Amino acid sequence: MGAYRYYWMGFLFTAAVILSAVSPAAAYLATTVLHLERTPLPLGSSAGLKQLRAQDRARHARIFDGVANFSVYGSADTLLYGIYYTKVKLGSPPQEFSLQIDTGSDLLWVNAKSCANCPRSSSFGIGLSYYDAAASSTAKVVPCPDKTCPNRCTKNGQCGYTINYEDDGVTNGVYVVDRVNLDFIRPDSTIATSSAAIAFGASTYLSGALGDSALAVDGIFGLGQGPLSAISQLSSRGIVPPVFSLCLKGEGLGGGTFVLGEIAEPGMVYTPLVPAQPHYNLYLQSIAVNGELLPVDPAVFATSTGRGTFVDSGTTLAYLVDEAYEPFIRAVTAVVSPSATPKISEGHQCYLLSSSVSQVFPVVSFNFANGASLVLKPADYLYQSVRYVSGMWCIGIVKKPGMTILGDLVLKDKIFVYDLVHRQIGWTNYNCLNAVNVSVPKQRSSSCSSRDMLLMSLPLAITALFLQISSVIGIKTM
């Protein structure tokens, strides 16, 4: 285990996706590749701010429920946002599933073949798949009672779960242990396959909005900090490093990069995580508009029961605690008022203007502990709405009681590194379709195996295919 702590190579997941990781035996000789896609809603659909808020609201209703935080929604408007997802191979023989990337929940879960109300089609154009434990030679349904079962027992003696949602949606399922089949690229560019056993959820029943084909994918890839997270399970056994990186492309067809490892880029700033929290809570200290601090007590951003500031890639928009929202809107409106006409649309603060938003709207800074500032350009917090009026731009940061949530709207076009070893999150602006630098830590111990030394001498050459743009990127090591 000590060797794994010192010689991690990055595990890359880029633009479209195949989940990959390696066995301990291969960990030093290969780099895993996963592709990441952002799927927009189909042309002609009418998703708007109201629908996006409804999706996020249903999600946030369960964010602090303390049981199993399963993300279900994560889509966005036809003009900008969609679900960022990867394709993960499960079982023996392997079957591929399209799973949403979600830092706000723990469990990796998929729809089961026996699911009563799971969608049979998706408006995203994704061919849906259904997990069949009986068809996998390596599958094992977790029994109950069992020391590994965190929840209730079903009438069939299986380890099950039930989650009720604010919108009357319900999902039932059982826990399964099976192989995650992983494609990875070696330093010599050859492709190899490995696998690792993990516990995940198989959903056997959905009702309400959870069965909506308009937003359907095969499940969720939870990247939370809990023990049932795939990251926690795999890193605790030395299969992947306890750090991962995301870079979500905001414009065009989207896409991006997902690395089980650390993307190292000049200009990265880091801020500590709030300890003993199930989510990625941060110490937000202040907000500035055009360099002027808002008159807001920092205590309103602090973490406590039902309150806090955290990062959540499964949330589409961004949310600002009540006490800070009105001062924020007033400050932005004061800056743009000479050139833009304020207008309320679907409960959001919007503005009518004919000139470029970059010339009219201010820069906004979210200032965190350790002097780390998340600087947002107008394109990072505005949402264009053409459903009713041409030339209308809306602020995609919404008021929310008790919580400040950094969703995809403000996370896009930046590298975010989730460092679970040093308990910190870092970020920097980046074009997420470009090559990334994967950091290979230097030796910290004089005692290491010949395999470790071999890794240190190998050049790293990773080729990751961005399916949606038909181009090739390279990975550089530092």
UniProtKB/TrEMBL annotation:
One MF term in the entry's GO annotations: aspartic-type endopeptidase activity
Keyword Transmembrane tagged: yes
Parts of the chain that traverse the membrane: 453-475
Domain Peptidase A1, first and last residues per copy: 84-428
Record-linked Pfam families: TAXi_C, TAXi_N
Keyword Transmembrane carried by entry: yes
CDD domains in the record: pepsin_A_like_plant
Residue stretches in coiled coil: none
Active-site residues, as the UniProt record annotates them: 102, 312
Top-rank taxon: Eukaryota
Biological process according to GO: proteolysis
SUPFAM superfamilies: Acid proteases
Alphabetical UniProt keywords: Aspartyl protease, Glycoprotein, Hydrolase, Membrane, Protease, Transmembrane, Transmembrane helix
Record InterPro entries: Aspartic_peptidase_A1 (IPR001461), Pepsin-like_plant (IPR034161), PEPTIDASE_A1 (IPR033121), Peptidase_aspartic_dom_sf (IPR021109), TAXi_C (IPR032799), TAXi_N (IPR032861)
Membership in a protein family: Belongs to the peptidase A1 family.
The protein's name in its UniProt record: Peptidase A1 domain-containing protein
Origin species: Linum trigynum
